[in-house]
User: Fold this.
Amino acid sequence: MNKKIILYVILGLVVLTLVFFTIFSNMIYAIRDSGITGNSINSEDKCTPPEGVSVEDWRTHMGHHPEMYSECLN
Assistant:
């Protein structure tokens, strides 16, 4: 009986973790771009689109985060 409870708890935690990372899949990019981690991107690099992203898509993305990309949106 106790083994089933432990198994259900572990399975529940795995499912919750997968749901969290599915919903917030871009959270790692937001943390990296905010400069919290110390790996902040300098202003030149953050204004150029990453590899595989079109300029239009990158400008749209920057428009959603004006506080982080204010110098790029001028």
DSSP finds four helices and no strands in the chain. The CA atoms of residues 43 and 71 lie 8 Å apart.
